[in-house]
Structures are given as structure tokens and as C-alpha cells.
Amino acid sequence: MEQRIATITRTTGETEITLALNLDGSGASTLNTGIGFLDHMLTLWAKHGLFDLTVNARGDLQIDEHHTAEDTCICLGRALDQALGERRGITRTAHSFVPMDEALALVAVDLGGRPYCVVQAEFVTPRVGQLGTDLIFHLFESIAIHGRMNLHAQVLYGRNDHHKIEGLFKAFGRALDAATRFDPRLAGAVPSTKGVL
């Protein structure tokens, strides 16, 4: 079976990022973005998706976390797209509900090649750790656009913003794990009536 791995490097006037992804990993991760809460969320994403993920990012954190967080998620989306290749034989669509104490999150994905993102969540605090909660929507959108996927994420209910966001990232990892799995009945065919994704 062909290895589904990708390494992405992105260098701008604001950030310098190297990201390595293995879709068929064991959930191992090494994160160093300089944004503790983002590292925590991506570690959870990798663990629950059984993806191997390494990220080294250096950005203009003296300004704020926006550019570093955004560019990290752009790289993650690009790595997903590159590792999936022609997307032959994959299940393609999947969803996951994840409870996190009092919060319940749902994420549904379609790896059909068309980028679209919907996030329905309400946060009561301006930030969790070093990450602004207003960025959560943009981070999922960046992954969806550059990963060429439909991504719908919803917090059905909850009180604690940390729990809500954690539920979303865990559910995203689990949904992607299911969607990227090979279905032997497809026998390597593209999972679309179009014949191409």
C-alpha cells in the first residue's frame, strides 16, 4: 500500500512552518507552535485520528497568535490534501460525536474535493490560553479550504469553552480517521460517480 504521507513547508514574512503528516500513523505527535492551547488541540486531533503529526512553527507571536495559528492550519490542510492523493478507495464521508464533560461536539466531513466550512459554536470567553476563541472558526475554515473538504462542525451544547473546543478537535480527528480509511469494496476506485475527486 502506498504511504500516505506529506511534508509541507511554508515561509512568509510572518511565519516559518514545517509540518509532517502520516495519515496511517499511531497518533504520535510533536507540536511546537509557540501557542500552547493550539499544540494541545492538534495533539488531541492526532491522537484521536491516529495520525502522526510533527509541527515546528516560528511566527510573529510578539504581535499576536493569528498568523502562526492560521498558517499552521493552512499547512495542515495542504498536508491532508497531498497525503490523500487521488483519494482512491477511501470511505470519503464520515462524522463523529464527541462528549467532553458537559459539552457535546459534532463534526462531519466529506473529502469530495470541494472546500466548504460551516462552524456553529458560541464561546463565552475571548481566549483559551494563548488562543483567541474567535480564531476557532477561521482555523477550521483554513483546514477545509486547503484540504479540499466539506467540514461541518457544531457544538450542540456546553458551558466551558476549553471543553467545547476540545470536543470539536477530537471529533474532527475521529471523523477524518473514518473518512480516510480504505473501503475494500471500492477496490481502489474513486468514491464518486464522477470518477474523479
Map the helices and strands.
Elements: E1 5-11, E2 15-22, E3 29-32, H1 36-49, E4 52-59, H2 66-84, E5 93-100, E6 103-110, E7 116-120, E8 127-128, E9 131-132, H3 135-147, E10 150-157, H4 161-180
Parallel strand pairs: 3-4, 7-10
Antiparallel strand pairs: 1-2, 2-4, 5-6, 6-10, 8-9
Helix pairs in contact: 1-4, 2-3
Note down, in words, how this protein is organized:
Helix 1 (36-49) packs parallel to helix 4 (161-180) and helix 2 (66-84) packs parallel to helix 3 (135-147). The protein has helices at residues 36-49, 66-84, 135-147, 161-180; strands at residues 5-11, 15-22, 29-32, 52-59, 93-100, 103-110, 116-120, 127-128, 131-132, 150-157. The chain starts with a strand and ends in a 17-residue tail after the last helix. It is of the alpha+beta class and 197 residues long. The longest helix is centred in the C-terminal third of the chain and has 20 residues, at 161-180. The radius of gyration is 16 Å and the shape is globular. 34% of the residues lie in helices and 30% in strands. The protein has a four-stranded mixed beta sheet with strand order 1-2-4-3, with helices on one face. Strands 5-6-10-7 form a four-stranded mixed beta sheet. The chain has four helices and ten strands; from the N terminus they run E-E-E-H-E-H-E-E-E-E-E-H-E-H.
